[in-house]
UniProtKB/TrEMBL annotation:
Naturally occurring in which organism (per UniProt): Adineta steineri
Protein name stated in the entry: C-CAP/cofactor C-like domain-containing protein
GO cellular component: cytoplasm
Domain C-CAP/cofactor C-like residue range list: 39-187
GO BP of this protein: post-chaperonin tubulin folding pathway; tubulin complex assembly
Assigned keywords, A-Z: Chaperone
PROSITE patterns xref list: C_CAP_COFACTOR_C
Record-stated family: Belongs to the TBCC family.
Pfam families: TBCC
């Protein structure tokens, strides 16, 4: 039990609007610490991290990613398959990887990726400082590239049993697709196609199924 002197040292006066109130600093610190831990736990429960992997195949089912923010970073020669509806994707520093994802309800950001293949459906796609990558996308706004070279684009070509249900639940408008309307922030010459991206010819295009492990090309 705290002595009177300890209680007095732990009490301070704070102004709450036009009122003054006594606050036990020790109790307030404990409450703030608890709230911080709760916030941290909540954030970790809503985030899926795939970080620092080499030569691995990783598959996530819908209940593992639905509504969550997914971070994929520092991978080499990995294949990552996400069935379901992630909220956002943050992808950074990948080399020689394949990333296949169900419809993402919000945005996808890709940075510093090289010689990778992506199959993504989302509202917004921002790609920075990446080269020699192929993107199979369905997107309801113009894809944006910046600081990129030798990027290629094709329509989203991923199949699995719950795909149509996931599309509806994701809120994506499937009738709108800007897969081949790429905005290059480093190319500003009107009427001239950017040299930094091109479409993948039909005979070269790939497709994937998320119902099989590992997901084969179709």
């Amino acid at each position: 039990m705290e002595s009177n002197d300890e209680l007095e040292s732990n009490v301070e006066i704070k102004q709450d609007g036009h009122k003054l109130r006594l606050v036990n600093k020790h109790i307030e610190d404990l409450v703030n610490k608890h709230l911080t831990n709760e916030e941290s736990n909540s954030k970790s429960l809503n985030t899926v991290n795939v970080i620092n992997k080499h030569d691995e195949f990783i598959h996530f089912e819908s209940d593992e990613v639905n509504g969550k923010d997914v971070a994929i970073e520092n991978l080499e020669h990995c294949e990552i398959f996400l069935k379901g509806i992630p909220s956002t994707l943050q992808i950074k520093n990948l080399h020689g990887c394949i990333i296949i994802v169900g419809p993402c309800s919000r945005s996808v950001n890709i940075d510093e990726c090289h010689q990778c293949e992506f199959a993504l459906a989302c509202q917004q796609l921002n790609i920075h400082t990446s080269d020699e990558c192929d993107f199979y996308v369905h997107i309801t706004a113009q894809p944006i590239i910046e600081g990129c070279h030798h990027c290629r684009f094709a329509p989203y070509n991923v199949e699995y049993k719950s795909k149509q249900k996931d599309i509806v639940q994701s809120g994506l408008t499937w009738a709108i697709d800007y897969w081949n309307n790429v905005l290059d922030f480093n190319h500003k010459i009107p009427g001239v196609h950017s040299p930094n991206w091109e479409t993948i010819e039909e005979e070269e295009r790939k497709g994937w199924s998320l119902d099989l492990h590992p997901a084969p090309m179709i």
